[in-house]
Amino acid sequence: MPDTSLVRAAQSGDALALDRLLDELAPFVLRICRGIALNHADDAAQEALLAIVRNLRSLREPRALHGWARRIATREAVRAARSLGGVAELPLEVPAYGDPLLGVEVRDQLERLDPAQRAIIILRDLEGLSEEQAAEILGVAHGTVKSRLHRARARFREEWLA
User: Fold this and answer.
1) SS3 breakdown of the chain: % helix, strand, coil, rounded to 5?
2) Does the domain spanning 4-161 belong to CATH 1.10.1740.10?
3) What does the buried/exposed string (b/e) look like for 16-47 if buried means 16 or more CB atoms within 10 Å of the residue's CB?
4) Are 4 and 49 in contact, with CB atoms under 8 Å apart?
5) Radius of gyration over every alpha carbon of the chain, rounded to an integer in angstroms
6) What are the CA-CA distances from residue 72 to residues 56, 76, 133, 138 (Å)?
7) CB-neighbour burial class of residue 114 (10 A; exposed 0-12, middle 13-18, buried 19+)
């Protein structure tokens, strides 16, 4: 995670600091976008990084950069997945745990979910965020997160066992 002095320097217009900050954030943003936007991850990550650059000065607390960037990346990934649609091709570079075939099957199941459902599974089950944190990032009520997560997991399970 970037130190606060780097964030402050980038906020004040230091181009080298901004470049270094984006270099540090890009892999994190892309990882989130890959899980949600699938084959549109590069577009979503680019839009997220542009939004980060455009709005960096509005970030009041540099220590909140990571969560703030996660929120932007999630929003852009869901937007890209919904607007660009189409048949998703799963990125092969997404790491799988254990058996490689199991990883392919899990990614195939994620591909079949609605982008909003995919986003909640990525935030909760892969990023390890709480329901409250996921609700804040997605801009929805806590109950909405709970119901989306329940439906997403149920659909995942149903498809997995089919």
Assistant:
1) 80, 0, 20
2) yes
3) ebbeebbebbbebbbbbbbbbbbbbbebbbbb
4) no
5) 16
6) 11, 6, 13, 9
7) middle
CB atoms within 10 A of CB 73: 29
pLDDT string in tens for the chain (162-residue length): 568 999 999 999 999 999 999 999 999 999 999 888 888 999 999 999 999 999 999 999 999 999 899 999 999 999 998 887 644 444 434 444 555 656 666 777 788 888 888 888 888 888 888 999 999 988 899 999 999 888 888 888 787 666
Nearest CA to 71 out of 131, 18, 136, 5 is that of 136
* Whole-prediction pTM: 0.68
Q: Report which residue type is found at 6.
A: L
Find where tokens 């490689």 sit: 100
